[in-house]
Design brief:
With about 475 residues, the protein is mainly alpha-helical. The chain folds into 3 domains: about 90 residues, Fumarase/aspartase (N-terminal domain) (Fumarase C, Chain B, domain 1, Orthogonal Bundle), CATH 1.10.275.10; about 250 residues, Fumarase C, Chain A, domain 2, CATH 1.20.200; about 60 residues, Orthogonal Bundle (Ribonucleotide Reductase Protein R1, domain 1). The protein has 21 helices and 6 strands. Strands 1-2 form a two-stranded antiparallel sheet. Helix 2 packs antiparallel against helix 8, helix 5 packs across helix 6 and helix 9 runs parallel beside helix 21. It is elongated.
C-alpha cells in the first residue's frame, strides 16, 4: 500500500494549531502523520473493509461470486490512491451519519457506483462486522507501520550514534561520580556504552511485541456470521484475513473489542526506552555543566537573550521534556486501554485517538537527543584535570590489595587516610611505601594513577554493539 502523506505545513495553520506537534514541530512529526493521523486512520479502515470484501468474494459463497481481476484491481486502487480529499469526503458523510465507521462504509459504496460487479456486491461491504472489527485492525496496522517505519529507525539511529561515541571515546578516562561524589574511574566511552547496551535491549523489546487483530463480531462469537453462513469456518476465515491480508497476529478470544493488551505491552516497552534516554539526557546535561563536553556552535544562534557567552544544552533539555510528556501519555494508554466495562464501553475510543500525540512527543525527543549528541565535543583537558585532582579514588585499589595479603584493618586504614580529605599523589605513595605487602604488589600500586585505574572499561566500551 502506498503511504499517502497528509501534511499540515501551512504557516498560518502551524501558528494557530492547538498542539505544538501540529504547530511549532509539525515538520518534525510529519512522518508519523502518515501513519497516525485521522486521515491515516480512515485509509487503514478502508484497507480493512476492502480486504474483508475481497476475502468474502473468494470464499465460494453463492451470493458473492469471486470478483474479476478488473474489480479486484479497482478495489486495491482505492487503497493505493486514497487521498486527503477522500478523507475529507468521509468526514462529510460522518457529519450526516454521526458514525465514523459507517461513514467509511458509505464512502466505499459511493466509490463503487458504476462498477456493475462491485455495486451488485456492495451490501457485503462491512458484512457481519462490528465497528471494532474495522477499528482494531486499522489501529494494529497503523501502530505496526509507525513502529517499523518511524519509531524503530529513530531509536536505531540514536543507538548507532551512541555505539559510535562509545567506540571513539573508549580510552578517554573519566572520574565517576556515585552520589555526586568522586568514585572509581571509568572511561567516557564505557559510560556511553552502558546506555547503548540498555537501549539495544529496549529496542528489541519494542520490536518483539506482536500486534494483534480480531474480526469476530459484536461480542467475539461470530453470532451474525453464523446466522447467515453457518457452514463457513469463520474463525479460520477471520484468521486468514488478519494474518495473510492485513499482516497482523490473530487473536481468537475477545469481547467486542480487541483487549489492547499488546498495545499496553508496546507502550510500556516504548516508555522503558524513553526512560533510558531521559536518564542519558540528564547525565549529558550534567557532564556539559562539568565541562567534560563542549558544544559545537552555529553561526547566528543565540544561547541567552542577555548573556552572549552562553551555549545552553537545549537539545537535551528539549528531549527530556518531551520524553516526560510521551511517557505520561504512554503510561495512561497502557493502564487504561486493557480495561473495558463488560463487553464494551467507549472510553478506549477517545483515548486511542491520542496515540499519535504520545508517539509524536517521543519522536521529538529522539530527534532532539540525536541533535544534541551531534553537537558534543569532548574536552579531554577538563576530564583529565578532574582525575588528577582525585587521588583518593585509588583508596579502593589499595585497601583491596591489602585485604589480599592479610594486612589488618585495610578498609579502616584507608578510610582514616582518605575519607573527606583532599588526597595527593605524594601522601598516597608514602602510605603505600609503608605497607607490609610483596614488592611486586607495591610496585603495581605505586604505578597506578586515577587515569589508569579503569579496570576493563576500554574493552567493554570497544565491544558494545
Amino acid at each position: 500500500m502506498a503511504d499517502t502523506t497528509f501534511t499540515s505545513s501551512d504557516p498560518i495553520h502551524t501558528l494557530t494549531a492547538l498542539s505544538p506537534l501540529d504547530g511549532r514541530y509539525a515538520a518534525k512529526t510529519e512522518a508519523l502523520r502518515t501513519w497516525l493521523s485521522e486521515a491515516a486512520f480512515m485509509r487503514h479502515r478502508v484497507k480493512v473493509e476492502i480486504h474483508w470484501l475481497l476475502a468474502l468474494s473468494a470464499a465460494g459463497l453463492s451470493e458473492i461470486p469471486r470478483f474479476s481481476p478488473q474489480s479486484e484491481a479497482f478495489l486495491l486502487r482505492l487503497i493505493e490512491t486514497f487521498s486527503a480529499e477522500d478523507a475529507l469526503r468521509i468526514k462529510q458523510i460522518e457529519q450526516v451519519t454521526n458514525h465514523d465507521v459507517k461513514a467509511v462504509e458509505y464512502w466505499l459504496k459511493e466509490s463503487v457506483k458504476g462498477q456493475v460487479e462491485l455495486e451488485r456486491a456492495s451490501e457485503f461491504i462491512h458484512f457481519a462486522c462490528t465497528s471494532e472489527d474495522i477499528n482494531n485492525t486499522a489501529h494494529g496496522m497503523m501502530l505496526k507501520g509507525a513502529r517499523e517505519s518511524v519509531l524503530l529507525p529513530a531509536l536505531k539511529a540514536l543507538h548507532a550514534r551512541l555505539v559510535e561515541l562509545a567506540h571513539a571515546h573508549a580510552r578517554q578516562p573519566m572520574l565517576s561520580r556515585t552520589h555526586g561524589q568522586p568514585a572509581s574511574p571509568t572511561t567516557l566511552g564505557k559510560e556511553i556504552a552502558n546506555v547503548a547496551a540498555r537501549l539495544s535491549s529496549a529496542i528489541e523489546r519494542i520490536a518483539a511485541v506482536q500486534v494483534l487483530g480480531k474480526m469476530n463480531g459484536a461480542v467475539g462469537n461470530y453470532n451474525a456470521h453464523l446466522s447467515a453462513y453457518p457452514e463457513l469456518d469463520w474463525p479460520e476465515f477471520s484468521r486468514a484475513v488478519i494474518e495473510q491480508r492485513l499482516g497482523l497476529t490473530f487473536n481468537p478470544y475477545t469481547i467486542q473489542i480487541e483487549p489492547h493488551d499488546y498495545m499496553a505491552e508496546l507502550f510500556d516497552a516504548i516508555a522503558r526506552a524513553n526512560t533510558i534516554l531521559l536518564d542519558l539526557n540528564r547525565d549529558l546535561w550534567g557532564y556539559i555543566s562539568l565541562g567534560y563536553f563542549k558544544q559545537k556552535t552555529k553561526a547566528g544562534e543565540v544561547g541567552s537573550s542577555t548573556m552572549p557567552h552562553k551555549v545552553n544544552p537545549i537539545d537535551f533539555e528539549n528531549s527530556e521534556g518531551n520524553l516526560g510528556l510521551a511517557n505520561a501519555l504512554l503510561r495512561h494508554l497502557a493502564d487504561k486501554l486493557p480495561v473495558s466495562r463488560w463487553q464494551r464501553d467507549l472510553t478506549d475510543s477517545t483515548v486511542l485517538r491520542n496515540i499519535g500525540v504520545a508517539l509524536g512527543h517521543a519522536l521529538l525527543a529522539y530527534d532532539a537527543c540525536l541533535r544534541g549528541l551531534a553537537k558534543l565535543e569532548v574536552n579531554p583537558q577538563r576530564l583529565n584535570a578532574d582525575l588528577d585532582g582525585c587521588w583518593e579514588v585509588l583508596g579502593e585499589a589499595v585497601q583491596t590489595v591489602m585485604r589480599r595479603y592479610g594486612v589488618p584493618n585495610p578498609y579502616e586504614q584507608l578510610k582514616d587516610l582518605t575519607r573527606g580529605k583532599s588526597m595527593t599523589r605524594e601522601v598516597l605513595h608514602t602510605f603505600i611505601s609503608t605497607l607490609p605487602i610483596p614488592a611486586d604488589a607495591k610496585t603495581y600500586l605505586l604505578a597506578l594513577t586515577p587515569a589508569s585505574y579503569i579496570g576493563k572499561a576500554i574493552e567493554l566500551a570497544a565491544h558494545v554493539k
